[in-house]
Design a protein that fits this description.
- By secondary structure, this protein is mainly α.
- The protein has one domain.
- Helix content is about 80%, strand content about 0%.
- The protein has 5 helices and no strands.
- α1 crosses α5 and α4 runs antiparallel to α5.
- The radius of gyration is 18 Å and the shape is globular.
- The relative contact order is 0.16.
């Protein structure tokens, strides 16, 4: 698999996912959180399909719990928790499944695009936080009297 093509494809799909999440503002946080939990849960699926040991399955579920907990903090709290979850998920992708001991069970067609997807989603959410604060600080939304 061509690393650059797979990474780019994941980044494009991540941008589309983020765009979908923001296109549904009432559900943006929920979509971002569920997406991260599902991204981690796929590795558990790969471990089950590979008939991995109970210890390995527990490790994969620990990853789901870890990323799910971090992201879930962003449901009612700061969106930075969601950014953190998506930004840290590449550690799971790369260190454990692309070059680490989980390499045999997680296919490159998932791990490499997932890396691009995760980083783009984290970047989009971080950008939206910073940009919305900047707009709130610099805009008065008032029409000057002379322009009326």
């Amino acid at each position: 698999m061509h690393f650059d093509i797979a990474l780019s494809g994941g980044a494009i799909l991540g941008a589309m996912f983020a765009a979908l999440a923001y296109a549904l503002p009432r559900y943006t946080r929920q979509i971002l959180v569920v997406g991260l939990v599902l991204a981690a849960l796929v590795y558990f699926h790969f471990a089950v399909a590979a008939n991995e040991s109970a210890i390995w399955l527990a490790a994969e579920l620990a990853g789901v719990a870890l990323y799910g907990t971090v992201a879930a903090r962003g449901l009612r709290g700061s969106l930075w928790w969601i950014v953190a979850g998506w930004a840290l998920h590449p550690v799971w992708d790369v260190a454990l499944h692309l070059v680490g001991p989980g390499r045999a069970l997680a296919p490159d067609w998932y791990t490499i695009p997932c890396l691009g997807w995760d980083l783009v989603v984290a970047g989009v959410v971080a950008y939206s936080i910073v940009f919305s604060r900047w707009v709130a600080q610099t805009s008065t939304f008032a029409i000057p009297r002379a322009a009326r």
